[in-house]
Amino acid sequence: MKILLASHNKNKIAELQALLDATCAEAEVVSLSDIGFRDEIVEDGETFEENALIKAHTGARLGYITVADDSGLMVDALGGAPGVYSARYAGEDGNTEKNNAKLLAALRGVSATRRGARFVSVVACAFPDGRDDIVVRGECPGRILTAPRGKAGFGYDPLFWYAPFGKTYAEMSAEEKNEISHRGVAMRAFAKEFAKLKFEENNAEQ
Fold first, then answer.
1. Band of the pLDDT at 93, cuts 50, 70, 90?
2. CA–CA distance, 146 with 138 (Å, rounded to integer)
3. Is 129 among the catalytic positions?
4. pLDDT tens, 158-188?
């Protein structure tokens, strides 16, 4: 059974494959690149759930069981911003340094007690046979620092402090981050839900 992950990201492909290997051994994860999909998927939803479903339904219309995720950072003092605009907070180029600089500027003068934040990841799965979508959500609570710490990770990771580990995301090992991260929580929840399903036949591309 081929499962399409609506992404070109090889790391996400490997992560989902590892999770499904433990719960659904017959599943093979393929990417948009693997199926030759080059069109842009317009993510114009107002929530993480809407954007994840837009991507998942795109793949399902091509005949694949399709998994997609949408994630971002929500900062309490900013009313939940940058939210669904996390990747393009400082502009459409998705520049990490600019995004982090804009976030720090927006929080200038905000006390540590008011810098609470959470990373959010929503994983959606849509099916070409029309059965109900799977939608799960993972969150990780933290706090935004006043300066970056750590060299690992990507995006807002150097600014996101996770108190139970006493580290930012960018100071964690890959194993530590996968244990508690929003995406790890959501992906594991998805894998459990997917494992409950029964399939009478493979999806259309088999």
1. confident
2. 25
3. no
4. 999 999 999 999 999 988 998 899 988 998 8
State how far the Cα of 37 lies from the Cα of 136, in Å rounded to an integer: 25
Residue pair 55/66 in contact by the 8 Å Cβ criterion = yes
Decide: helix, strand or coil at residue 48. helix
Nearest to residue 3, comparing CAs of 25, 91, 160?
25
Q: Using omega within 30 degrees of 0 as the cis cutoff, is the peptide bond preceding 164 cis?
A: no
Cα dihedral: 160, 166, 171, 174 (round 10): -100
**Rounded CA separation 87/159 (Å):** 15
Number of Cβ within a 10 Å radius of residue 112: 11
Place of tokens 């194993």: 175
Segment holding 65, helix H or strand E: strand 65-75
Which one of 70, 129, 133, 157 is the catalytic residue? 70
- d(CA 163, CA 125) in angstroms, rounded, equals 32
**Residue 121 and residue 84: Cα distance in Å, rounded?**
10
pLDDT score of 32 more than 60: yes
Report helix, strand or coil for 96. Answer: helix
pTM over 0.70: yes
> How many angstroms separate the first and last alpha carbons of the chain?
7
